Amino acid sequence: MSVKFVRVLAVSVGVIAATASLPPATAAATTGFLDKTFSGDGRALTNVHNDDSGEAVAVQADGKIVVVGSSSGGTDIAVVRYDTDGSLDATFGGGDGIVITDVNGDDAAYSVAIQGDQKIIVGGTTDGFSQAVLLRYDTTGPLDASFGGGDGITTTTVGLGAVFFDLAIQGDGSIVGTGAATLDGVKGVAFTARYDGTGALDTTFASPDGYVTTNLGAGGGQMMGVALDGGKVVVAGSSFSTTSSNVAVLRYTSAGVLDSTFGGGDGKVTTDVGTGYDSGGDVAVDGSGNIDVVGAGGNKDAFLRYDDTGTLDPLQWYCRLADLANDLLVPLGSVITPAGLRHGHSVGRLVLHAESGDTELDLVPGGLELVDLAPGQTAVADFRFRDSVRLGGKGRQFEVEVAGGLGGLLVDLRDVPLKLPERHDRRREQLEAWQASLWAGLDQ
């Protein structure tokens, strides 16, 4: 197997659809399809050494792309750097864009972050998952002798094993890593550590250790994403029971203590997204303190938004769309997507309260409802369903403040996500058909 890296220009069906619908004179180049200016076909395939895998990616300030993972069948850490055109960066490593590091036994990297000085921080595990490991590379690829024990490497032993799945770098250069540890060799616990700029554990965090472990469900847990909220640390992942799992979000203070202002007073929030196994992945904190988590639930991709107290945002099934046209941000409108609809003639009614007056319409499952709402206007969408649906939370009545745009307000009643064919040509045909129906009449 080889390290695989694919670049696309959009990652959201909503952005793809909105971009494709702009009039030809103003349409931006963003389509969501593979960028053929990158490695000729939008893909870069690199054989590092025997059986390889790429696990995480970061982009430097100059646009160069760093991919980390493992090589030699999971025994060594691999770092690969590409130029912006997808070619291997000849200024990195031994002139081939590749650096392989054998730390101790079976090693693997799962996370990467770029410092302000463009040095590369890599996180993962070493010695067969027995220790968490951080490595720092200089900008040209050699391990940084000013980090760790003089060899660019620092390891941390927690219980019987530990691993870092994500990294974040604070403004002062401190490095925060999150992942999982096992204290008994059976189940995992959430594991978060902070290091200073030399690679030493920061003993002011979760004093005196510099790391904190947090027990989650009866079956354990693990963290897959970390984000910084001022001095606070937010991590997201999964909490396991004996038969299922839920999305889990934890918030720690700058001192490494669970934040009593988050969740139920214990700094923890778990969310049952769907039937069976749910999982949290990456996490981000916006300027208002809202916490966005991506993952999976009920065998579908999931997006969750929490406010800064850990309460699920009831508007998480709502988005506003905009795009760049002639270097100006053009509002395209709003999309609302209820889930869990029952098939029938009508599932409820919508009353849109706008300055120009009220608009009423029946909500029929399986279709798209487009309501005029001009750019710059706002309105309140009053939904009243016959049965309980999911629109962020569960219920039958919701009020959502929406913004207008070129496309107005779109209510998508098809119970997405879409199921896309495996074949590229058929997938493209289905996406194009979906785009055409999504903003029908926009360019008229």
Question: What does this molecule look like?
Answer:
With 444 residues, this protein is mostly beta strands. The chain has two domains: 53-306, 7 Propeller (Methylamine Dehydrogenase, Chain H), CATH 2.130.10; 318-416. It has two helices and 29 strands. The chain has helices at 13-20, 424-438; strands at residues 3-6, 43-46, 53-59, 65-71, 76-82, 98-101, 108-114, 120-126, 131-137, 153-156, 161-169, 175-182, 188-195, 211-214, 220-229, 232-240, 245-252, 268-271, 279-285, 291-297, 300-306, 318-325, 328-336, 348-354, 357-363, 368-371, 378-391, 393-403, 409-412. The strands form eight sheets. Strands 3-4-5-6 form a four-stranded antiparallel β-sheet, with no helix packed on it. It has a four-stranded antiparallel β-sheet with strand order 7-8-9-10, with no helix packed on it. The longest helix is centred in the C-terminal third of the chain and has 15 residues, at 424-438. The chain is globular. It starts with a strand and ends in a 6-residue tail after the last helix. The model is unreliable at 1-31 and 323-329 (pLDDT under 50).
Q: How are the SSEs ordered, and which strands pair?
A:
Elements: E1 3-6, H1 13-20, E2 43-46, E3 53-59, E4 65-71, E5 76-82, E6 98-101, E7 108-114, E8 120-126, E9 131-137, E10 153-156, E11 161-169, E12 175-182, E13 188-195, E14 211-214, E15 220-229, E16 232-240, E17 245-252, E18 268-271, E19 279-285, E20 291-297, E21 300-306, E22 318-325, E23 328-336, E24 348-354, E25 357-363, E26 368-371, E27 378-391, E28 393-403, E29 409-412, H2 424-438
Parallel strand pairs: 23-29
Antiparallel strand pairs: 1-2, 3-4, 4-5, 5-6, 7-8, 8-9, 9-10, 11-12, 12-13, 13-14, 15-16, 16-17, 17-18, 19-20, 20-21, 22-23, 24-25, 24-27, 26-29, 27-28
Helix pairs in contact: 1-2
